[in-house]
Design goal:
The chain is about 60% helix and about 0% strand. The protein is mostly helical. It folds into two domains: about 60 residues, no CATH class; about 80 residues, no CATH class. The radius of gyration is 19 Å and the shape is elongated.
Length: about 160
């Protein structure tokens, strides 16, 4: 009987629609913490997904809210890069140049002719972009995009 219940539970999980949260991705953690909001549930979802390697399983099998046919979007790459490089980006923006800031510009598809302006703009709006209330990569990117939307030269590149 336990075997039948285990198989039924596994089939139920496998039949779940794609529920992947845009911040946490797909996986058991995303399913376990579904419907909850805030930093703590998102961190728990990401930790669960990463710690147990279930995203790989889900992507490979098309289960756990994952799709084996998904495409990594530039928005996801941008978010992943920003989250992994916050300290470097903060420093580079504060001085108005640097490798991380240049890579961010490339991911945002800012042409070489506009990079100097982008660098200067991030430097002059550093306090707005890295405001104390901006604790996550998503909040920092949103603030950066807000700054870019307000700038005539950079508005076209603010996703």
């Amino acid at each position: 009987m336990k075997g039948i219940l285990s198989i039924a539970a596994l089939m139920g999980v496998m039949a779940l629609p794609v529920l992947a949260d845009s911040d946490t991705g797909c996986g058991a953690g995303t399913i376990l913490w579904a419907g909850q909001s805030g930093v703590v549930p998102k961190v728990l979802a990401v930790t669960t997904n990463g710690t147990f390697g279930n995203q790989t399983f889900g992507i490979t099998t098309g289960t756990l809210g994952c799709s084996p046919n998904g495409v990594i979007s530039s928005k996801v790459r941008l978010s992943m890069f920003t989250g992994s490089n916050l300290e470097h980006l903060a420093y580079d923006m504060s001085v108005g140049h640097g490798e991380s800031l240049n890579t961010l510009a490339d991911l945002m598809k800012i042409p070489a002719t506009e990079k100097a302006h982008f660098f200067a703009t991030t430097q002059s709006h550093y306090g707005e972009i890295f405001a104390p209330e901006h604790q996550s990569a998503g909040q920092i990117l949103a603030a950066l995009q807000g700054v870019m939307h307000a700038d005539a030269q950079l508005a076209a590149y603010a996703g």
